[in-house]
Amino acid sequence: MPLALLALAISAYAIGTTEFVIVGLLPTVASDLDVSLPLAGMVVSVYALGVTFGAPILTALTGRVPRKPLLLGLMGVFVAGNLLAGISPNYETLLVARVLSAFAHGVFFSVGSTIAADLVPEDRRASAIAMMFSGLTIAIVTGVPLGTWIGQTFGWRATFLAVSALGVVGGLGVAALVPARLSQPPAAGLGTQLGVLAKPRLLLAFAITALGYGGTFVAFTFLAPILETITGFSNSTVSLVLVLYGAAIAVGNVVGGRLANRRPVRALAWLFALQALVLIVFTFTADAKVPALVTLAGMGALAFANVPGLQLYVVQLAQRHAPEAVDVASALNIAAFNLGIAAGAFFGGQVVSSPLGLGATPWVGGLFVLGGLVLTLASGALDRRETDRRATVPAAC
Question: How many other CB atoms are there within 10 angstroms of residue 9's CB atom?
């Protein structure tokens, strides 16, 4: 694998830490800012919505900017957003800071995914994308637990100041390892993006991403409160449990990339089925420590295992249905990932506020993932129909 992928993974580590560390800090932030748990959860939703809308719009606006300067500029915006979060005096300022960081996140991963895929042979593209996204998973293994510990010990603002330092390291990695000469696809404007959104097959794939990936976040957003109030772990032990969860995610990401290299749809169908099952099982194991830990390991292994396959599948569909806008399709899929996060966090908050309560978030998330499974099977059927049609037309000629 090229060293440029390592640079992308380093930056993804910093971005992944700031995206997910808030999950471990949610009770602390809610208490310090004197807001309810569901309102604190909106910090997750707002960040995800910033990525959702920022990724496609900013990708279009920066389409003509050379790739390496663009990546460096994005890391600068990312550092600024986390510095602002680190000095936020109130809830509203924290929301603004999170949106600023989210804008950098969206463009970075949309551009980075296509760069990663272009750097390797075709049959290793899913693995290359998985390597870049491994920065996210390693962040969950180390960055999120460490950031949670820092926040619980020195205050949640200290966590974001530390993350801004990580962003500086990521920027230095891009400067040192990403080659100056990178392929520059034609810039795609907002009109091209609207054209992609008019493609039913791509819209279906985006819906798969939002439901299948976002379903986990109905429960994951409120994982710290679940572990503390239902399972009975102490505040300090939650950081250690997040290490287990993150380690499982790292393994699942690599395995998922390998499974999806050749037949992404089939791999996604199996992964979604298992993911929904584990989420539903967690509903019944969350109140006992050992069963909860075992289930969480499975939940973590499946949470990100679908990411490489989802991104690769969208690129493959775009190459067939919108070859002039593969970059845009990639950006919109990054938006779909984060729309799923936003929806998962929002509906999780609604569940927590409802009579169902905190303990119902896992099985509600499982229903989201089952929706993604149904759409995946439908999309696979359409793929087979298209393949049969292409095989029939030459035979008829």
Answer: 26
CA dist 197 and 130 (Å) reads 25
Task: Please state, in angstroms and rounded to a whole number, the distance separating the CA atoms of residues 210 and 338.
Answer: 7
pTM higher than 0.85 for the full model?
no
125-129 contact pairs (CB < 8 A, 24+): 125/261, 125/312, 125/315, 126/257, 126/258, 126/260, 126/261, 126/264, 126/308, 126/309, 126/311, 126/312, 127/1, 127/257, 127/258, 127/261, 127/308, 128/1, 128/5, 129/257, 129/307, 129/308, 129/311, 129/312
Q: Give the mean pLDDT of the chain.
A: 85
Cα(94)–Cα(22) distance, integer angstroms: 11
Q: Is 179 left (phi over 0), alpha (psi -120 to 50) or beta?
A: beta
Confidence of residue 68 (pLDDT cuts 50, 70, 90): confident
For residue 79, give Cα distances in angstroms to 13, 75, 193: 13, 6, 28
Q: Which pLDDT score is estimated for 187? A: 61
Question: How many CB atoms are located within 10 Å of the residue 243 CB?
Answer: 16
